[in-house]
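Board notes (copied after class):
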Amino acid sequence: MKIGILGAGQLARMLAISAHQLGIDTVCVDPNYECSARDVTKVHHADFFDLHEIEKCFSGVDCVTYETENLPIEAIHSVSKKFKLHPDIDILSIFQDRLSEKNFLNSLNIPTVDYLDVNSWHDIEYAINKFSFPFLIKTRRNGYDGKGQAMIHNTEEARAAWQQLSGKPLIIEKFVNFDFEISIISARNDKGETSFYPLVLNQHKNGILFLSQAPYFNEKLETLAKEYASVILRKLNYVGVMTIEFFCHHESLLANEIAPRVHNSGHWTIEGAETSQFENHLRAIIGWPLGSTKAKCLSAMFNLIGKKQIVSDLLNIPGAHYHWYNKKPLDGRKLGHLTLCTSNRNEMEMNIEKAIKLIRY
């Protein structure tokens, strides 16, 4: 069994490690030479538009998947004609564009924040009158970890954002002072078998995920999140792992973003669940039975951003598991993650405090 992966970052790295444990070969294609996955699997450096080279790189693969939705859709359309692609090209095209994503969600009666398509300064003036301040202006594509977006508090900031971002497809989203963010991670194979991981509670700093804790126990919200995810999975005949981030607002859920892939808020599943999100994604796309998504313990996952860490200090924390992505340190770059595991809630709270004091940013 052999799987091709479009992209060779840390998600591809963790997919490749999980594949190796299952006896599955992997090969990645990525135009960048500095790739996190390069020391755990084969990485071919090719442009995503170079179909001839991709065909050579993916020779003999059973299927192809991707670690990011920020791919050139025209190029991936050509790839999908040559190889079995999961999740499929239509799903990728929906979720790589914030406007089409929200239109899709609303068509299924899944609530989101109010939003507007932006094509001109007149559209921004309309948003000022409709939403009042503050609101967010975002690029419709290629936005992640807080990139490609700005919080707008007044007309001057709106003009500055328009001057900076105009020329790119944009969307305006009404600002909602939500209570907290959760995510639901699901897995579905081509037979329709579906499993859900427990809810995850997420905290961000500067637009980047900082801490995920699981399971987050809230029966009402978990039931609602699973209901929304099930609607999407069935509608799209989805195959693979999918993550939905929700804002919790007045005990209701607003869908914020969907990732048609393994997701940062699911890294805790490597040690904290009976089957990791990476293994279940692989099982799903090759048609194997899904593994159990039950939590084995309480888990807390910290992103390690920007700076190398003093590993020995972090591993002094009981139940700590350290993952390094083999990437050059840069401000704002995810270099690794730390997962804490325990069955005792008080111990978890103490260990989280220890980690916060030790992690370097």
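Comment from the instructor: The chain has three domains: 2-85, 114-174, 180-358. The longest helix spans residues 219-236.
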